[in-house]
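Appendix B. Chain record.
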Amino acid sequence: VVEKLDLTLTDTLGDTVAPSAIPQARQRLSSDPLQALFHLCAAHWTQEEDADDTWYGLRLFSVDGTQFRAP
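Structure tokens predicted for this chain:
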């Protein structure tokens, strides 16, 4: 994800951080950022203005974190 979004960190010489730095930093995070994101999305998705968007009378929500490579 970091590479796809071009979020790599560089120093003044243009050198990037070690490839292992991102996974190591991610391991130091608690679940708090993801929980905050969930609550923010849930609050937005459950607005009354979306009450007419139903499928067989049910409100449909989806989050997909799947990643795959295709040629």
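Further analysis of this model is presented in Appendix C.
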